[in-house]
């Protein structure tokens, strides 16, 4: 059956692929972006929505207007929009740090709050929060991103438990590395020469490793296909990992049994980071 879907981050990458895949299967998609001109045009079943997750005051009104246009409660809310800011944690300004949290955590929370009343009234609905495998494997020099995704995962699970007595479902989707433009669009914070020197050479090693991994990563259509299956009820697990076999299957299994020090050692090795002698 055709479903109504509210999808954030529909202008590029996984979001755009998902919008196209859902529309091709007859679902109606209200997809968001900060600028109207960035959203797809002439896509049957697609309805553009201008939404800036960093402008929290405007989120409820934009969602409710789309909900009214859809004719009632959305069947599905997909919190997919994302962005990255790269640099050592101590170098982030308050504005840069808060911007990451608003896009990746507080904005999705506002949308969940906006969607829940109508979903609960019907006693059915699906909320998919697109987190990341970074919830288990924090990315170096992307601390605000990693912590926001970890918090989003925890929020999804907690809310799912709170709504256990209803017909609503919550799914935490955790993609690994995929070949998108995410790394190209990641902002690098400006550092003083002293701070840049303090984190050299690991700063560039991590950036280059992430770039290399993203370029060699699988096709992001895999994530869009996973979201279609979730929307259509073919996947109902509360946590869905998507990626290559190592990232999505083997590594999460190992991390559950390995000492955390080993996990951190593996992450340093994976990103080519140098280590110093600890006292």
Describe the structure.
- This protein is of the alpha/beta class.
- The protein has a single domain, classed as 3-Layer(aba) Sandwich (Rossmann fold), CATH 3.40.50.720.
- 48% of the residues lie in helices and 15% in strands.
- The protein is built from ten helices and nine strands.
- The chain has helices at residues 13-24, 59-70, 94-122, 143-162, 182-185, 193-199, 202-215, 221-231, 245-257, 260-270; strands spanning 4-7, 28-33, 46-50, 76-79, 85-86, 125-130, 168-175, 187-188, 239-242.
- A seven-stranded parallel beta sheet has the order 3-2-1-4-6-7-9, sandwiched between helices. A two-stranded parallel sheet has the order 5-8.
- Strand 6 (125-130), helix 4 and strand 7 form a beta-alpha-beta unit.
- The mean pLDDT is 93.
Name some characteristics of this structure.
279 residues, alpha/beta, Rossmann fold, seven-stranded parallel beta sheet, 15% strand
């Amino acid at each position: 059956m055709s479903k109504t879907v509210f999808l954030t981050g529909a202008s590029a990458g996984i979001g755009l692929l998902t919008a196209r895949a859902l529309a091709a299967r007859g679902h109606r998609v209200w997809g968001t972006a900060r600028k109207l001109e960035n959203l797809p045009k002439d896509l049957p079943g697609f309805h553009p929505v201008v939404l800036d997750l960093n402008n929290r005051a405007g989120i409820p009104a934009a969602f409710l207007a789309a909900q009214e246009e859809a004719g009632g409660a959305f069947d599905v809310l997909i919190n997919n929009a994302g962005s990255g800011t790269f640099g050592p944690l101590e170098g982030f300004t308050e504005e840069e740090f808060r911007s990451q949290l608003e896009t990746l955590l507080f904005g999705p929370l506002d949308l969940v709050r906006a969607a829940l009343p109508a979903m609960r009234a019907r006693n059915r609905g699906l909320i998919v929060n697109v987190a990341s495998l970074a919830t288990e494997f924090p990315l170096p020099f992307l601390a605000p991103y990693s912590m926001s995704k970890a918090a989003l995962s925890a929020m999804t699970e907690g809310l799912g438990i709170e709504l256990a007595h209803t017909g609503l479902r919550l799914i935490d989707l955790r993609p690994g590395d995929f070949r998108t433009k995410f790394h190209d669009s990641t902002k690098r914070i400006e550092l003083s020469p002293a701070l840049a020197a303090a984190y050299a050479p690991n700063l560039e090693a991590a950036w280059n490793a992430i770039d290399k991994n993203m370029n060699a990563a699988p096709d992001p259509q895999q994530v869009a296909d996973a979201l279609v299956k979730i929307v259509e009820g073919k996947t109902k697990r509360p946590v869905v990992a998507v990626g290559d076999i190592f990232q999505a299957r083997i590594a999460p299994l190992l991390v559950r049994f390995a000492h955390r020090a080993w996990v951190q050692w593996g992450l340093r090795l994976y990103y080519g980071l140098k280590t110093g002698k600890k006292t």
